[in-house]
Amino acid sequence: MLEAHELAKYVAHRNLVGPVSFQVPRGEIMAVMGPNGAGKSTLLKLLSGLMKASEGRVTWQGSDVKNEGRPAMGMLSHQTYLYSSLTGKENLYFYGSITGRETTPAQIEDVLQKVGLEWDGDEEVGRYSRGMQQRLAMARLLLQDPEIILLDEPQTGLDQAGLKLLCEFIRQWKADGKAMVLVTHSCDDIFGLVDRLLILKKGHPAYLGECPNSPEEVLKLYQEALQGSEKSLCSDS
């Protein structure tokens, strides 16, 4: 289980996010929503360790994730962090080398085939369309096979076929027991897979609880959370 314990970040007496506490069990997804500047990206950075928390801690299976034995944690973001001058295959090999993972040609071919780029691996990424770049980032995540997956608007740049593929991967990751945190601005098909919902308002949790079943219900709850009081909408359920 991924847990945040009174996690908070302050800069020059300004509260960027928190304090917030939540649990994401294996095989579940928690979506994070909120207006621009609400602290969504900051929260992901705190969870990933890219930013040091002012207060609180993050644990996985009861152990602090910053310890030497931290689990593999992967991210799929609207920013792909790919090298445009390298080919698709070279990007994947390079990722394997910097993470200390032994990467074989068969593994590279396998993940490229799974994301529909089996014929494009030798092309420079700078020639890829935006959607192809996002698919390559998905292949990189498949290659890593982490226990915790952070998704930061992963739908960006994907067409309907790409979005369908992403949803299929997310379903499989749930079945495989991955713990996932999804940051999104939209109430789309992915919400049919979400278990819990965190809505941030000026860095504070305006709602924390079960996620409604339909995008329409999510939108209604989102609007109510931003208009109402944090105390009345937050729950431990």
UniProtKB/TrEMBL annotation:
Alphabetical list of InterPro entries matching this protein: AAA+_ATPase, ABC_transporter-like_ATP-bd, ABC_Transporter_VariousFunc, ABC_transptr_haem_export_CcmA, P-loop_NTPase
GO terms classed as biological process: cytochrome complex assembly
Pfam families: ABC_tran
PROSITE patterns linked: ABC_TRANSPORTER_2
Keywords: ATP-binding, Cytochrome c-type biogenesis, Nucleotide-binding, Transport
Keyword Transmembrane recorded: no
Xref: CDD domains: ABC_DR_subfamily_A
Domain (ABC transporter): residue spans on this chain: 2-227
GO molecular function: ATP binding; ATP hydrolysis activity; transmembrane transporter activity
PANTHER family: ABC TRANSPORTER ATP-BINDING PROTEIN ALBC-RELATED
Protein name: Heme exporter protein CcmA
